[in-house]
Amino acid sequence: MHQQEVKQLFEKNKALLSGHFKLSSGLHSDTYFQSALILQYPQEAEKLGAEIASLVQAANIQIDTVISPALGGLIIGQEVARSLKTRALFTERIDGKVMLRRGFKVEKDERILVVEDVITTGLSTREVIALIQSQGAKVAAVASLVDRSAGKVDFGVPKFSLLTLEVKSYKEESCPMCQSGSSAIKPGSRKER
Ligand SMILES: [Zn+2]
Fold it and tell me: Which residue from 63, 103, 109, 168 could staple onto 113, CB 3.0 to 4.6 Å apart?
């Protein structure tokens, strides 16, 4: 599946929108990605998960277990694990701290694939990596549906992404779209519906 096909699939499902958006971070952006709008279709989610799995397999990287941060990475992580025939665990954020709960355990030297829906700054992914390493397991690679950092984020392990985008975001006071008179919409907000 080429980047262009992935992009078209996202656009068809309105998961990838172009316009003038106010992100949850408060920044304004010309692109908005809502992975839930594509992952709501299990057949599409399964297909995308298989695509990610095949990238990892093509690189000859052995994976024992997939770990994804909830909620965003949960569905795609499950589908990647289905394709790789591994377990699918998820981390949760409790009082600001990323944790493995529900009795999930990783073994020493277990080879982990971290699966995200979107990588923007990579900060949350780094927290998941630190957690896995603190348990003695090994992060073999990181994969995501979308890399919004234009591939710039580096985790020190191989990284795979179905779609790499360079997304521009601006502070409100320096947003060129605001300056040209348009107003930002908050995607997924009540108002928009
Ligand atoms: Zn703006």
Answer: 63
Say how many domains are in the chain. Answer: 1
Which amino acid makes up residue 96? G
Please tell me the distance between residue 170's alpha carbon and the centre of ligand 1 in angstroms.
7
The amino acid occupying position 5 is E
pLDDT per residue as tens digits for the range 86-96? 999 999 999 99
What residues are paired with 66 via a beta bridge?
88, 113
For residue 17, the domain's CATH number is 3.40.50.2020
Q: How confident is the model at residue 189 (pLDDT cuts 50, 70, 90)?
A: low
- pLDDT score for 193: 35
Task: Output the CA–CA distances (angstroms, integers) from residue 55 to 2, 60, 61, 159, 176, in the order listed.
Answer: 12, 9, 9, 10, 37
Ligand 1 centroid to 22 CA: how many Å? 7
Average pLDDT score over residue span 59-74? 96
User: How much distance in Å is there from the Cα of 30 to the middle of ligand 1?
Assistant: 8
Domain that holds residue 91: 3-179
Distance 32 CA to ligand 1 centre (A): 13
